[in-house]
Amino acid sequence: MKLVDEAEIQVIAGNGGNGCVGFRREKFIPLGGPDGGDGGAGGSVWLVADENVNTLVDFRHQRQFRAQRGENGMGRQAYGKGGDDLIIVVPVGTMVTNVETDEVIGDLTTHGDRLLVARGGKGGLGNMHFKSSINRTPRKALPGLPGEERELKLELKLLADVGLLGFPNAGKSTLIRAVSAATPKVADYPFTTLYPNLGVVSVEAHRSFVIADIPGLIEGAADGAGLGAQFLRHLQRTRLLLHLVDIAPMEGGVEGLSPAEQVRAIENELRKHDPELLDKPRWLVFNKSDLLLDEERDEVVRATLEALDWKDRWYVVSAIGRDGTAPIMRDVMAFFDRQREEALEAANAAGGHAP
């Protein structure tokens, strides 16, 4: 199913029920007094994250969600029944924004997370609350308060440990095929990947991580060019970026950029979209090494590293031949293991618990 990762919905909480104006009418109690009950509270609207849901496509068909209204109060001090809350199920990784204020209301990152997005209105008071020594027959009751109403933007960000970054045809889909059970479409034309793909990389028993194949970026992506602009947000949740570079680009067009120019162009798009993405750990992966002779390949790698003044890790692979891919995955797993160990040590030092 194609990933639908944005939707706008309207949520309307239930109104509170009205208070009741009532009086006791028993035969032998002539001065029974007021006994109008309160109205019930309106139902609230909640979003709940469910790991069994992986798309926002349902919200393209239904955009308005309304919780139940509270019942009106009744005589004999009977309270109205409160309206039922409305539960809206969304995928894990959904960020919720108030469209009117552009304020982020919440981020549902764990299965079972709940977020109150519209609170039901309070029920109105019945006339039994307004009796006094000077007003023994109050004919006053309060109406229920209206429930909250909001326009919400739902934005799904993939929960992946590793994000694959690079130009179209850099070989991201081929790499994810090589290292996981994911089977994204692979072809020799730009924009083969039209939506993100997730793959689970199992290094050994009980040791795995999730890798995301993001649609390729081109220059101007942060300003809306190409397809990758729609998916840059997915990189924000990753803990490590693998920056794939075509070591043997074809002549002409986007693919004609040298490896160093490819890296600089992508860095510029990341900087424009979210500068914090450049602060994430990022390893350079020279792909398609099988297209060059050893001496030519080594010269391209050396020149690129010098031009970029690259200080972090780098690898040379042939994703299509699965040559050199396994060591990268083992290093990635070791990287995450070190992160967990450091988090545990920090938590122990602080007397807490590791996340």
From TrEMBL:
Keyword Cytoplasm among UniProt keywords: yes
Subcellular location, record wording: Cytoplasm
PROSITE patterns assigned to the protein according to its UniProt record, in alphabetical order: G_OBG, GTP1_OBG, OBG
Domain OBG-type G: 160-337
Gene Ontology, cellular component aspect: cytoplasm
Positions of Mg(2+) binding: S173, T193
GO molecular-function terms, A-Z: GTP binding; GTPase activity; magnesium ion binding; ribosome binding
CDD domains: Obg
Cofactor: Mg(2+)
A Pfam family annotated for this UniProt entry: GTP1_OBG
PANTHER family referenced in this protein's UniProt entry, alphabetically: DEVELOPMENTALLY REGULATED GTP-BINDING PROTEIN-RELATED, MITOCHONDRIAL RIBOSOME-ASSOCIATED GTPASE 2
Assembly and interaction partners: Monomer.
Alphabetized NCBIfam families for the sequence: Obg_CgtA, PRK12297.1, PRK12299.1
Protein name: GTPase Obg
The organism of origin for this protein: Lysobacter enzymogenes
Source lineage: Bacteria, Pseudomonadati, Pseudomonadota, Gammaproteobacteria, Lysobacterales
